[in-house]
Write a structure and sequence with these properties.
With 255 residues, this protein is of the alpha/beta class. It has one domain: NAD(P)-binding Rossmann-like Domain (Rossmann fold, 3-Layer(aba) Sandwich), CATH 3.40.50. α1 links the parallel β1 and β2. The strands form three sheets. It has a seven-stranded parallel beta sheet with strand order 2-1-3-4-5-9-12, sandwiched between helices. The chain has a three-stranded mixed beta sheet with strand order 6-7-11. The structure holds NADP nicotinamide-adenine-dinucleotide phosphate. NADP nicotinamide-adenine-dinucleotide phosphate binds next to α1 and β4.
Amino acid sequence: MRIVVVGGTGLIGSKVVEQLRATPHEVVAASRATGVNAYTGTGLAEALDGASVLVDVSNSDYLDEAGSLDYFDTETLNLLTYGAAAGVRHHVALSIVGTDRLAAGGGGYFRGKQLQEQLIRRSGRAFSIVHSTQFFEFIPRIADAALDGQHTKVVQTLMQPIAGDDTAAAVVEAALGSPTGGTVEVAGPERAPLADFVQRWFGRGDHVRPVEVDPLARYFGSRLRDGDLLPGPDARLSTLTYRDWLERETASHPV
Ligand SMILES: NC(=O)c1ccc[n+]([C@@H]2O[C@H](COP(=O)([O-])OP(=O)(O)OC[C@H]3O[C@@H](n4cnc5c(N)ncnc54)[C@H](OP(=O)(O)O)[C@@H]3O)[C@@H](O)[C@H]2O)c1
């Protein structure tokens, strides 16, 4: 069957495309870089022609509420509408563990993700949603966002991050399976304070930077309550540890 991966050139999308290309299916990586714009609709009809499955792993360039809501509203409605017209039988989307909690905490970006999920659920289309915790690869972004002058001030919360390869595998499994009409959660094997994961990222080289826990810090605009980033008891847990991922990462990109 033909599977179109919208956002197929991104961090997770490129892994999804690579894993799907190891199967006998026809796989199309669709993004602005390949001439497909899910926001404007440019190239969508052509890309989706003959597709059975549409996988949405695209992302907004905007982290603010207005930008995120506008992107996910427009692109999701475009994908659902063009998908229906092309005869797509399964709409698969990647979102975040705790999206509703993060949106309720005031994080504008997460309001966009929440709207994306609502639009899919209410569309009447056959769908599956994958909720992932934060990717290991995203921890440097969390560290950058937490930089306040000379200090890295992070939010006080537990997290259970996962290797991007493992999130991609869950998305692939959803794409090759039947529509669930619901959400599956995936997370990594280890639960620890967010500050520990950031500290261990900095600790790869000789220039260990101190990480401070700031009770007033926000997580991408969201005021977190403890547990907001954590998966529920039914989440599927992957096995690659942060330690092994860090070793692999440091070997391929020496500090
Ligand atoms: N960060 C985390 O830890 C985390 C955790 C759970 C879930 N997620 C979710 O995972 C998803 C993927 O995240 P990611 O980090 O892999 O994103 P990413 O690396 O930023 O990639 C985004 C992809 O979307 C494409 N894109 C952007 N605008 C587009 C448009 N208008 N039309 C078509 N394609 C467009 C980009 O390609 P072009 O620029 O070429 O268009 C790129 O391929 C997001 O929805 C995010 O919410 C993230």
